[in-house]
Prior knowledge:
about 200 residues, alpha+beta, lipopolysaccharide transport protein A fold, twelve-stranded antiparallel β-sheet
Amino acid sequence: MIRIILRLLDRVLLSLPLVLVALLALGSYWMLRTAPALDKDQLPRPPDHTPDYVLEKFSAQKFDTNGRLTLFMQGESAQRLPDSEWVEVQKFSMRATDAQGQVKHASADLGVSSYDSKEFELRGKVRLLQEAKPAGNSPRLEISGEFLHFFADLDRIESNKPVQLLHGRQQFNADSMVYNGIERSLQLDGRVRAILLSESPVP
């Protein structure tokens, strides 16, 4: 009798691994069946460089709280890429007026604007013109080149490519620049050339 019991015990012990594997398989199957389905919209999507909209003969206006026009922007077309927070405008042109009445005009082959119109990148045949201040304490400023990075709120203009500046009757050429309108400072780097003339020409 003892031998029969020992043989049964041996068979149970030998079959135990198979029973455990079967239980694990059943548990895995049950977890897959009861787990909530993964929403396809939650899957990370690869970068999409296809515009989600394109506007022809694009124009946009921005007003302040008093209803005063502060920004007018237009171009041949505008598009936004889903993986970008910027709007690209072909044949870009812009007219902006700040709270002090300072007027800026800008044009470029391509203008890239942030959604809040506080930051712009201008590329290709860039020209930015800042009219003389109404008070007369700041002369006309014109900057031209192939690239400008303009921060409207900070009145800051940067470029890491060659530029030409006309400030009143002064002319500057440089490989790169940083202009700060609030601090009224200008930093020119690289090969710098300047033509300095008196602001009041002698008759």
